[in-house]
Automatic annotation (TrEMBL):
<dbReference type="InterPro" id="IPR033479">
    <property type="entry name" value="dCache_1"/>
</dbReference>
<protein>
    <submittedName>
        <fullName>Methyl-accepting chemotaxis protein</fullName>
    </submittedName>
</protein>
<dbReference type="GO" id="GO:0006935">
    <property type="term" value="P:chemotaxis"/>
</dbReference>
<dbReference type="Pfam" id="PF00015">
    <property type="entry name" value="MCPsignal"/>
</dbReference>
<dbReference type="Pfam" id="PF02743">
    <property type="entry name" value="dCache_1"/>
</dbReference>
<feature type="transmembrane region" description="Helical">
    <location>
        <begin position="12"/>
        <end position="33"/>
    </location>
</feature>
<feature type="domain" description="Methyl-accepting transducer">
    <location>
        <begin position="400"/>
        <end position="657"/>
    </location>
</feature>
<keyword id="KW-0145">Chemotaxis</keyword>
<keyword id="KW-0807">Transducer</keyword>
<dbReference type="GO" id="GO:0005886">
    <property type="term" value="C:plasma membrane"/>
</dbReference>
<dbReference type="GO" id="GO:0007165">
    <property type="term" value="P:signal transduction"/>
</dbReference>
<dbReference type="InterPro" id="IPR004089">
    <property type="entry name" value="MCPsignal_dom"/>
</dbReference>
<keyword id="KW-0812">Transmembrane</keyword>
<keyword id="KW-1003">Cell membrane</keyword>
<feature type="transmembrane region" description="Helical">
    <location>
        <begin position="283"/>
        <end position="302"/>
    </location>
</feature>
<dbReference type="InterPro" id="IPR029151">
    <property type="entry name" value="Sensor-like_sf"/>
</dbReference>
<keyword id="KW-0472">Membrane</keyword>
Amino acid sequence: MTKKSTKQKSLGPKIIGTLLAMSIIPLVIIMFINSKVMTNILQKRLDIEAKNNVENVYQTLDSIQDAVLGAVKATAQLPELGKPVNKPMEELKIKNALELVGKTNPNITEIYFLPNDHDLISSVDVEASFAEMSVRPWYKAAMDNPNDYNWSKPQRDKITGDTVLMISKAIYSNGKIVGVLSADMSFPRVNNMIKKSKIGETGRVVMMSDEGKILASPQNKELNENVQEHQVYKNIMESGNSGFVKDKTGNAYFKKNKHGLIVSSFLEPNELNNNKMAILQKSLIMIIIWSAIAIFVALVVTREVIKMARLMVDSFGRASMGDMTVKIGVLRQADENSILRKIPFIKNRIGNGEIDENGNEIHRIVSAFNRMIEGFSRLIEGIQMESDNLAKMAVDLGEISKQTNSATEEVSETITGIAQATSSQAVDAENTVSEMNNLGEAVEGILNKANEMNDAAAITTELNVENSRLMVNVHENWEIERVKLGELAESMETMNLDIQNINKIIKVITDLSAQTNLLALNASIEAARAGEAGKGFAVVAEEVRKLAEQSANSTKDIENIIETIQTKSQEIVTQVSESYEGGLKQTEIIDGAIESSKEVAAKVDVFVNQITEIDALVEHVKAEKDTVLFAVENISASTQENSAGTEEVSANAEEILATMEEFATNISELEKTTEILNLQVNSFKLK
């Protein structure tokens, strides 16, 4: 049978791969970061250049428009424009003034005036009729907005190709429009600036209308091109009056003016790509050079490491075979023809291969290996000596184990008896705990009922106190009413006496009426005797008699009424007296009820105190029950613990017995092992 050979692995590829990774990966990361940083820096530089170029063009454009506007405003104030143009001399004056304005402002290509119903007057020799010019957009804009300076949309001149803006203004004279002044403004200076503009390597500045038509650009092929479908134009129109917008080639800076002109920057797609490629090429060259250096260093380091590793593997192999004389004195033989040793710096670093205990990690590992071999040698010598002693001790332990085994059997039997008695005690203790728990439940029930009685007694006490308070209030109120009733009875008695006295007064009145009637009768008789002289007196006497009879009749009526009142008054006095006597009886009943309430309250207080005492006694019983239960539970727990401990001791005793039997067996095995150990220890080569 042939043994299958396995290929041994080496650290060389791993060391080379690790060194290459440690060298190249940081370079790649640095290259990536550097590329991003350089791209950002380049983008910022391009943004700054774009903004500066656009701002310069825009400011120039703005200043030109302001200058042209100022010139047109000044021209509109000329008195010649407000006069009728009826003679050639008047037309010539206007033409000369317009030519002067055109010459003094190079940005005005033509300035012209169209009087009402007159041919065009221009700073250049252009002839046109009123009918032809009055339909032009600049004329219509001025007539529609006569008080404003009207700017036209930017457009390219068909002859010169320059961008042209027209400004027009209606001219007034005596409150009436006499004509329209207009000027054509071009941007030669702006066009030159745009043609010379440069952003980076391929960038440029263009001027376009808000309708997307390119009016000025360094590239002639772009002139008059419509870019409405381009994304950058759409982004500009969706943005404000100025700022950066995103483009597939980078950022584009733009600025709009109020006359429909847009100045913007543009970059070619390869602007950033060319710079990125240049950075990548330089980075790749650095990676290749550094990789070559790293591979060379890795090969050299790997060769030296593998040599030292093979030497250490060989030494460990000899030690594993029992050769304790192996020691590493030199890691490698000094090779004077080595390329590395010809370099002074490296020669001093790698040395001549001798072991230095304070050297690098490899030297310290080898030193530790040498010390380990020396320690193993001393250890094996000690093992050989102790092995002989161990053989002697094994024989003695065999005798001792036999004696211990016999004693352990006796102890095990005794502990088994104790365990059975303890188990019986544990059962009794558990029954006692159960009975105490039942007693505790009964006491708890009594305590709950006592608490309920206590609560009910407290409520009864509160109700009785409230009832007593109400009875006292009733008694006090009734006493007040009884006193008032007594006073009323006295008043009624007094009133009854006063009513009885009225009869005396009525009797006096009756007597007076009778006497008056008698006197009147006597007066009538005397008057009759007197004859004619007594007729007047007789009439008076008759009237007095009639009054006396009426008074007597009224007195009888009053007397009847008084008798009725006296009867009713007497009845009321009787009823009030009876009510007063009933009140006295009611007072006695209320006093009795109050006394009864007080007695009930006293009995309830006694009842509450007794319930409180019962509650305290039940609490005391409960506390004593808890104490007894706790003690019984402790006894039960202790008994169970003792039982468990006894059983455990019994089990341990049996286990010790088994262990002693096993120990005896092991002693026998130990004797055999000692013999084998002596043979193995003697196989080591120590000297």
